[in-house]
Amino acid sequence: MTKTIAKCQRDAYKTFAPKKKAVDDFLRYTDNYFARSVLTTNCKSWYKNGADGEAIIRSIWPGSGSHYFAALRHPRWEDFDWEPVEDLDHSMSWLGNGTAPQVNGAQVHLSMREYYKVSTGREQH
Questions:
Q1: Looking at beta carbons, which pairs linking 3-9 to residues 24 or more positions away fall under 8 Å?
Q2: Half-sphere exposure of 44 (CA within 13 A, CB side)
Q3: Distance CA 8, CA 10 (A)
Q4: What CA–CA distance (Å, rounded) separates 6 from 9?
Q5: How far is CA 116 from CA 21, 112, 122, in A?
Q6: Among candidates 2, 6, 17, which has minimal Cα distance to 109?
Q7: Cα(91)–Cα(119) distance, rounded to whole angstroms?
Q8: In which band, very low, low, confident or very high, does the pLDDT at 40 lie, cut at 50, 70 and 90?
Q9: Confidence band (pLDDT; 50, 70, 90) for 21?
Q10: What does the pLDDT look like over 89-100, one tens digit per residue?
Q11: DSSP letter string, the chain
């Protein structure tokens, strides 16, 4: 989540949402994973709210803890739709005025973006 929030701040996105295809593919992966496990068999389990019978598991990660951390370490940005905060003159405005900021990320980039608008004579919104 931290990387996603930093991307939104750095690249001026106001919303993001997973693409339907990415969600559908993940659920298909999850269903295939759990189909090979004992969790979906005919037994009582808190994963199934105490009910008997076969089940579709949606409450836990489909793999080990180390698999979870490795999978989420580097987000797949292409699996999301991004809505920008505003229309920018071009996609490289995040580079700002060409200085190399020495302080932490997002706020510096946003102020650099503001410098870009002022230096090109664009009105502030």
A1: 3/75, 4/75, 6/105, 6/106, 7/75, 7/77, 9/105, 9/106, 9/107, 9/109, 9/110
A2: 2
A3: 6
A4: 5
A5: 36, 6, 9
A6: 6
A7: 16
A8: confident
A9: very high
A10: 666 666 665 665
A11: -HHHHHHHHHHTEEEEEE-HHHHHHHHHHHHHHHHTSGGGSSS--GGGTT--S-----SS-SS-HHHHHHHHHS--GGGEEEEESS--SSTTGGGTTS----S-HHHHHHHHHHHHHHHTTPPP-
User: Residue 89: what residue type?
Assistant: D
* Tokens encoding 6: 């930093």
Length of the chain: 125
